[in-house]
């Protein structure tokens, strides 16, 4: 008799893309399942890219029914005496492998858990340690889920990124890169869009003209396209905006290991730097052209989200609209993203900032919020930068 979950256990990630699908995919996986897989990178970070997701619906902000959970595994201790069956304790603090005599040979400490449901494709998931645990949970209705399909591989840096949004980290993240971790990357978003790069962390060796170590970014798909930035040092770079749907990146490591970089990208049809969707535990977005004035009539919209089970908090470390107090044509608005009883997502207006305002910390009521930026040619300020993060308890403005 075929096992309801199909083949489960440990999957060894390599530099080649491999496929993990739900049982019976593309048919529904079945009811009352709890299927678990461990994707092991052997101390190298693992990356997951979703190809299809149709699990329950997003009618619950917590995905309490059918859901897919991805657990970050941040450390491991191992006894090499024997090998045996894998036991995943998805609700606890560790993943344990036992030998035939029930002795623990591997114990892995668990980090952050991401939960997904509905049909919207999440951006790539990158482990903080060397493994990810994937758990599919279905309820009583066998037809309530269409299942999932994803690619998994080692998070190597020589690669092409395709999609509307994503995350890029330096080699061996969140550890230190090595002196031979030279790599090239391309980003391609859908046709008729532009790409925005937002930096979450940046630590490279500083040097004159960034000659020792750098992250080079060009406005197109090749090394001969227009240079947008040659970055080094520890200061967080300004956001970078393309003029087309392609970017080319090259990372040159230093002999002395450093932390590297963590950035997110999103795409938009509204013009360079104007809006997009960004998902992360912590991230940032800026006004177009920041820190400068675009001097044109603009209406941009960003959709920000943090993992399900958290609520979103937003701060503005920089907010400068210039001397104008025109709050009808120059402002930033924040709205909550909420699920209604019928399962549709709606927005609830929460705050507007303009002129000489100094926005206080904003805490939402869900894991998502939208930022709307409206400005005119009368705006002479240098713009704004918003930093968002997921928190597990409510502290701040309501």
Report on this model:
InterPro entries: CUB_dom, Sperma_CUB_dom_sf. Keywords: Disulfide bond, Repeat. Residues 5-155, 157-268, 274-391 form the CUB domain. The protein has 398 residues and is an all-beta fold. The protein folds into 3 domains: 9-154, Jelly Rolls; 157-273, Spermadhesin, CUB domain (Jelly Rolls), CATH 2.60.120; 274-398, Jelly Rolls. It is 0% helix and 49% strand. It is built from no helices and 29 strands. The strands form 6 sheets. Strands 1-3-10-5-8-7-6 form a 7-stranded mixed β-sheet, with no helix packed on it. The chain is globular, with a radius of gyration of 22 Å. 38% of the residues are buried. Residues 77-107 have low confidence and may be disordered.
Comma- or semicolon-separated keywords:
49% strand, CUB_dom, Jelly Rolls, mainly beta, Cubilin, 398 residues
Secondary-structure topology with pairs:
Elements lengths: L8 E4 L5 E4 L12 E7 L5 E10 L11 E12 L7 E3 L5 E5 L5 E13 L8 E2 L4 E7 L7 E10 L4 E4 L2 E5 L13 E6 L5 E10 L10 E5 L8 E5 L8 E2 L4 E7 L7 E9 L7 E4 L2 E5 L11 E8 L5 E10 L10 E9 L5 E9 L8 E2 L4 E8 L7 E9 L7
Parallel strand pairs: 1-3, 12-14, 21-23
Antiparallel strand pairs: 2-11, 3-10, 4-9, 4-11, 5-8, 5-10, 6-7, 7-8, 13-20, 14-19, 15-18, 15-20, 16-17, 16-19, 22-29, 23-28, 24-27, 24-29, 25-26, 25-28
């Amino acid at each position: 008799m075929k096992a309801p979950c199909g083949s489960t256990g440990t999957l060894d990630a390599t530099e080649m893309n491999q496929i993990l699908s739900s049982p019976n995919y593309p048919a529904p996986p079945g009811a009352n399942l709890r299927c678990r897989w461990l994707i092991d990178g052997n101390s190298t970070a693992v990356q997951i890219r979703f190809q299809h997701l149709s699990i329950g619906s997003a009618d619950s902000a917590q995905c309490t029914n059918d859901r897919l959970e991805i657990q970050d595994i941040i450390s491991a201790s191992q006894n090499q005496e024997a090998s045996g069956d894998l036991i995943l304790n998805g609700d606890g603090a560790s993943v344990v492998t036992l030998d035939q005599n029930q002795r623990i040979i591997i114990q892995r400490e668990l980090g952050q858990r991401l939960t997904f449901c509905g049909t919207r494709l999440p951006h790539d998931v990158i482990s903080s340690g060397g493994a990810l645990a994937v758990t599919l949970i279905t309820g009583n209705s066998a037809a309530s889920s269409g299942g999932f399909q994803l690619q998994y591989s080692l998070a190597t840096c020589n690669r092409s990124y395709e999609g509307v949004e994503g995350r890029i980290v330096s080699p061996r993240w969140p550890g230190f890169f090595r002196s031979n971790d030279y790599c090239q990357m391309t980003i391609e978003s859908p046709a008729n869009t532009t790409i925005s790069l937002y930096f979450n962390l940046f630590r490279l060796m500083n040097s004159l003209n960034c000659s020792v170590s750098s992250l080079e970014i060009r406005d197109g798909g090749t090394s001969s396209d227009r240079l947008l930035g040659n970055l080094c040092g520890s200061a967080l770079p300004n956001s970078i905006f393309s003029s087309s749907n392609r970017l080319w990146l090259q990372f040159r490591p230093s002999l002395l290991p450093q932390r590297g970089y963590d950035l997110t990208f999103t795409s938009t049809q509204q013009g360079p730097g104007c809006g997009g969707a960004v998902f992360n535990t912590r991230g940032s977005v800026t006004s177009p052209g920041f820190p400068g004035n675009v001097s044109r009539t603009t209406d941009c919209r960003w959709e920000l989200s943090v993992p399900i089970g958290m609520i979103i908090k937003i701060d503005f470390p920089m907010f400068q609209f210039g001397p104008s107090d025109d709050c009808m044509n120059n402002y930033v608005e924040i709205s909550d993203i909420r699920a209604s009883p019928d399962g549709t997502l709606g927005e609830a207006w929460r705050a507007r900032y303009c002129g000489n305002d100094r926005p206080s910390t904003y805490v939402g009521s869900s894991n998502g919020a939208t930022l709307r930026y409206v400005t005119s040619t009368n705006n002479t300020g240098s713009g704004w930068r918003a930093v968002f993060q997921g928190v597990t308890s409510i502290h701040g403005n309501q």
